[in-house]
User: Which sequence fits this backbone?
């Protein structure tokens, strides 16, 4: 028994984390404990909820972390014969994910709550909880690969074998301490292989569809959520009517708050023109939304803040990397220079819709060198 390690597997109730749990149980080298993180009270903000899992606008529920998911995770744990617990992280989730999400939108940025959740909750808090209950390491259903450099003792993060499912874009903030306790059992598998394993092992969720929406946004509309959340808090957005202007300074219309817009947006601008216009910039200081032609969205330089270097990079050091500025963005070659406050990035070719608040992740081939948050487009 001395060689047996205890691994806490984060179980979301989906096919990925359930298959990861099954693989751990099947290798007979670990004692496995299932943990589900309760992150958000799905009954909050009733104005956004309808009946039978639909919002008032008829948007079907496809979120992770729902009550049904907790039920499914428990079913899978019972099926696998492993201990199972639900841990309540709701307060920390609201403080570190939901409130910053709202605040960033109100300042004209476009945040990624899933990346914040991975860094602040699913690894930071989850690792602490797992260690407290006697587990030596944690495992998740993320599609990513991890290697330890035996010469330096540092951990290296790599894209998954299935590039269509790779989730390293959301994991760039993980520290060496967090990585040292982590396992990604699905990193060398394709989604098709994962689904096949789930079917072969007759997991109760083998045919379950994937969740798509952010767990705390039931309608799929960030704007509806922000206004309902602020109303619950007894607050208003604080937004004032402002101007929508062209890139040459002409006033075209009025807006009701910058949180209604994001860089690259075309639909829902609130006025008609004879040609397609896109949001080019959100100027929070002047309370203006700047719109222009599609070609004006292509820029090359930006600054990133709060950069986490998974591979050591010294201040002032420059490197050539492939940089990804959205989850679905194809990483493009760029020059990255580490600075005191983060990093300066210059793409070799202009990229479309570089958006403050989004993550910028730096790759060397399949390896994640580091990443940070886009703070200013230059």
Assistant:
């Amino acid at each position: 028994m001395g060689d047996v390690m205890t691994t806490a597997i984060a179980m979301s109730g989906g096919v990925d984390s359930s298959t990861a749990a099954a693989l751990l149980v099947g290798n007979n080298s670990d004692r496995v404990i299932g943990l589900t993180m309760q992150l958000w009270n799905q009954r909050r903000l009733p104005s956004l909820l309808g009946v039978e899992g639909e919002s008032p606008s008829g948007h079907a529920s496809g979120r992770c972390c729902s009550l049904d998911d907790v039920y499914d995770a428990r079913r899978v744990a019972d099926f696998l014969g492993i201990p199972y617990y639900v841990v309540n992280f709701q307060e920390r989730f609201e403080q570190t994910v939901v409130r910053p999400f709202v605040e960033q939108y109100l300042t004209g940025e476009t945040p990624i709550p899933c990346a914040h959740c991975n860094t602040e909750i699913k690894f930071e808090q989850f690792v602490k909880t797992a260690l407290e209950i006697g587990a030596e390491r944690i495992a998740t259903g993320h599609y990513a690969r991890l290697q330890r450099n035996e010469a330096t003792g540092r951990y290296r993060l790599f894209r998954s074998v299935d590039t269509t499912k790779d989730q390293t874009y959301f994991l760039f903030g993980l520290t060496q301490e967090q990585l040292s306790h982590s396992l990604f059992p699905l990193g060398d598998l394709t989604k098709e292989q994962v689904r096949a394993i789930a079917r072969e092992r007759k997991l109760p969720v083998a045919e379950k569809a994937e969740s798509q929406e952010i767990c705390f946004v039931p309608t799929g509309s960030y704007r509806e959520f922000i206004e309902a959340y602020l109303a619950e808090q007894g607050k208003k957005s604080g937004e004032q009517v402002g101007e929508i202007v062209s890139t040459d300074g002409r006033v075209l219309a009025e807006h009701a708050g910058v949180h209604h817009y994001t860089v690259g947006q075309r639909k829902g601008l609130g006025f008609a023109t004879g040609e397609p216009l896109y949001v080019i910039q959100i100027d929070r200081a002047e309370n203006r939304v700047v719109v222009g032609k599609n070609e004006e969205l292509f820029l090359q330089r930006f600054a990133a803040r709060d950069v986490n270097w998974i591979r050591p990079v010294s201040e002032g050091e420059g490197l050539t990397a492939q940089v990804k500025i959205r989850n679905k963005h194809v990483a493009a070659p760029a020059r990255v220079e580490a600075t005191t406050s983060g990093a300066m990035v210059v793409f070799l070719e202009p990229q479309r819709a570089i958006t403050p608040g989004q993550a910028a992740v730096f790759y060397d081939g399949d390896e994640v060198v580091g990443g940070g948050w886009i703070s200013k487009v230059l």
Summary: The longest strand covers residues 298-309.
